[in-house]
Nuclear transport factor 2 family protein
Amino acid sequence: MTLTCEDRCAVTELIALHGHLCDSGELDRLDEVFTADVIYDVTDFGQEVLRGVEACAEAGRALGELNPVGHHVTNIVLTEQTDGRVHARSKGIGVRADGTTGSLTYEDIVVRVDQGWRISHRKVLARRVPLGG
């Protein structure tokens, strides 16, 4: 499969949509970003792996006021895989209510399903030290 310009645009917008949905509290729409059986790995933050889109939504609701007020994604790099999947690597900046920020890296596997492109696996890696520390 060749990743077209349209596919690249759709996957990039998909990755961006996650932050918009989270920041507006529309966690019931996360199925527009993730597959129903998504694996969402936040073990780098000391949490358990989340399994399924509803588990992701529930985790966001449980965080409540501890959620960032802004999820900003940048530096998206897409790599086509031979099996039709796309590896997406992007940088995230989280802005908290007190104005402090944090940096992270998203490592995503994106697949095409009947509804379009969706993230089937996401690993979130905290950036804590410079130069890959």
User: Anything to note?
Assistant: DSSP finds two helices and six strands in the chain. The chain has one domain: 5-128. The first helix runs from residue 5 to 23. The mean pLDDT is 96.
